[in-house]
Design goal:
Strand content: 15-25%
Shape: globular
Helix content: 10-25%
CATH class: Alpha Beta
CATH architecture: 3-Layer(aba) Sandwich
CATH topology: Trna Endonuclease, Chain: A, domain 1
Number of domains: 1
Number of strands: 7
Strand order of the largest sheet: 1-2-3-5-6
Largest sheet: 5 strands, mixed
């Protein structure tokens, strides 16, 4: 541990802010944000590819669901339509999850072209940095809501989903959606 850095060069963070019910949450966010070139990172001058940022977001969401007692299985890379298959341990309920991740704090996320049909079990999780620059925040949004509220770009290749005017408060870190 040199220069205040912990394992693998990840800067140490005051862990007293974490709740007792989620002791590993900060560690997941800490490692993920370190990979995104947070200040103090040894690789701060290197640009991380969007594919790596996206994969980090998928694994962050999978870990957050797993520590809540759900089975979260990442799909093979570039599976069309979803990144995770999530189910309860008893297998009685399942969701297909599309994760969209940004290393910044966007107000919208590009979706690609929206599918004409969407499964009732579809869920989108939009991941971005929290205001503190250390943690992550996730907006858990039912696919039916995304389908109803996305913005079609008539001139470009991307449809996008924008946070509602209230900042998406009713979707922010609503991991209980999966219960």
């Amino acid at each position: 541990m040199k220069n205040g850095k912990g394992d693998a060069g990840v800067p140490r963070v005051n862990r007293s802010r974490t709740s007792q019910s989620e002791p590993s949450k900060l560690r997941y966010a800490e490692v993920f944000l370190h990979s995104l070139n947070m200040p103090g990172s040894r690789r701060q001058s290197e640009r991380i590819s969007n594919a790596v940022i996206g994969a980090g977001g998928v694994h962050y969401v999978a870990s957050m669901l797993s520590i809540r007692g759900l089975v979260a299985l990442p799909t093979v890379r570039n599976t069309k339509g979803f990144d995770l298959v999530v189910t309860r341990l008893n297998g009685r309920r399942f969701w297909t999850v599309q994760v969209k991740t940004s290393a910044k704090r966007p107000q919208f996320w590009p979706l690609g072209k929206m599918p004409v049909r969407m499964a009732a079990s579809a869920v989108y999780v939009f991941v971005r940095r929290a205001k503190d620059g250390v943690n992550l925040e996730a907006f858990i949004v039912p696919g039916s809501v995304v389908k109803r509220t996305y913005h079609r770009d008539a001139n470009g290749p991307w449809d996008s989903w924008y946070l509602p005017n209230d900042g998406g408060a009713k979707y922010l870190n609503r991991w209980d959606f999966f219960q």
